[in-house]
Every structure is written in structure tokens, then in C-alpha cells.
Design brief:
homodimer, mainly beta, Elongation Factor Tu (Ef-tu), domain 3, six-stranded antiparallel beta barrel, two-stranded antiparallel ribbon, 1 helix, 9 strands, 2% helix, globular
Amino acid sequence: MQITFSPIGTIHTPFSNLDGMPIQPSGAKDAEGTIILEPQYGEGLQDIDGFSHIILLYHFHLSKGYRLVVKPFMDTVKRGLFSTRAPRRPNPIGLSIVRLVRIDGLALHVQGVDMVNGTPLLDIKPWVPEFDVRENARAGWLDEKQQDSRSMKSDCRFAEDEQKG
Amino acid sequence: MQITFSPIGTIHTPFSNLDGMPIQPSGAKDAEGTIILEPQYGEGLQDIDGFSHIILLYHFHLSKGYRLVVKPFMDTVKRGLFSTRAPRRPNPIGLSIVRLVRIDGLALHVQGVDMVNGTPLLDIKPWVPEFDVRENARAGWLDEKQQDSRSMKSDCRFAEDEQKG
């Protein structure tokens, strides 16, 4: 079964390639980006200005292929793909929570972007603590590494021509 | 531009139809479900047992069409689609955070499911507080309604044949 989606807009960021890009919004709190929505979806932006944070779902469009066991940016040993946020996945859908700074027509100015410039946007959802936060969570191998994500940058390991995973 | 995905598994839940289904995991803390991963992806489950919560991205497969301004389950006035978590969206991708209870081979037993039985799974990501939690968030029109989500149930408004949005 195949499921087909089309981008609803484009995410513009300061990161023209994967090298040196933050690996998560927690490492990119100040990185500003702009989402330009396709005009036919503009009406759907009503009421979103009341939310301080939004969830972006997007296509990891530079990601080609995948391996099921990968060495993630934040570790030195291989991990099962679904225990990582690596971009090369069977369905390469990215998820980032960014701060919504302001809206000008079809442009959403956001802070905390961690995706490459020109990334195709698939969906915007409001980030709602009641729905999206869990208490007392364990984060497996990432528990010891979470602090590192603030300073760690991407490299080429998940780029199209690299298979270092 | 079209982007094509294929399900990596199926989410089995107690909810055989939309009527009476919880609208968010926060209203379904005890609802147990089972994810059955397609065999070719099994190796990717390594290390995921260390995480107490996982993010499920899935296809709202019963969702047909959309309106850009909708009356959400939790409100009596119409809201811009992208400020809601309504299933009928330009790209009908669902996002839920569920508790991972245990893994048996290709079966992930989870708690807090809020999707209909047979939902096609697109991706599993680890839920990581450092990446996925923001402090001092404002949740717009939902700020006053978040408590309601624990008791509110779905109805038919977003079903295939209904256009009540």
C-alpha cells in the first residue's frame, strides 16, 4: 500500500547543507527560520498565533535509503533505527518543535529550526503540553546524552552519498 | 511534487470505529494497543526497550478530504485547521505519544492509544524530553480546554461521510 503526500509549504533555514546543522531544536534555540505556506492553505493558519510552539512534520528530502542499525550523532555505538531520530528512515518524516515568533500572511517566523534550507513541509500541528508531555519518562541510551544535543552538530553521515550509518 | 510512503506496520487498538474513541492519549491513558511491525523492519527495534514513551506517526486512513476551518472536538467555534489536531488535513498524518509497555518480537505493546484499529503506521521515534518538551508554552484556544481532553471522546464529525467540520 502506498500513501502519497504533497508539501504544503517550504521551510527556509540558515543551513544550506547538512554539515554543521544542529541535530535537534535543543541545539538550535536561536536559529531562525521562515515557513512559507502554499497560498491555498493560508486560511488554515487562523488561531495558530495563540500557540507559542508548533510541531513541524516535514520530509527529510535529502535522505536516501536507510539502515536499520545506525550509529547516531550522539553515540559511538550502533543503535536500532527506531530508537534514534536519524533522518534516513523507511518513511523519512522529520518532526521538530519550534517556537512561533510571528506570522506575516503566509510566512511563519519561527525559532529553533534544525532542518536544512528548502525542506518540504508536510504538516503543522499545535504543540499542546496536555497532549505532548509525559512525566517520568525514560529515554534509553539517550538519557545520558541529552545534554550533548545542545552543542552537537550534524555531519555528513546521513547525506545522500554517505552510508556510514 | 508528490512524496510516497508505505506503512511499516499496523496499530491494533480497541477502537473499531471513530465513535467513542478518545481524542488524545491524555484521554486514553489505559487504552492498550499493539503495534505489529512488518518483519523486514524488526532489526530497527533494537534499543527501543530503554524508552518509556515512543512517538507514533501514522496515516489517518479513514480521513478523506479536509476543510481549512473546522469545529474541533474540544470547542464550539471554528478554528484554523493548523491550530487543531483534527484528522482531516491536507496530509493526514497522525502523531501520538504512547507508553511502551513491552516488546515481543515484532509486537510492541503500548498504552494510551487514541487511533482507530487497523491504523497504518508510518514511523516510530523515541520520545526524548530534551528534544520534545518546551517550558512556558502557550496553547492558544486549547489552553482552557486541555483538561477536557481527558474525558472527551471522538464522534463522527471527521468520518469519511461526514463534513461537519
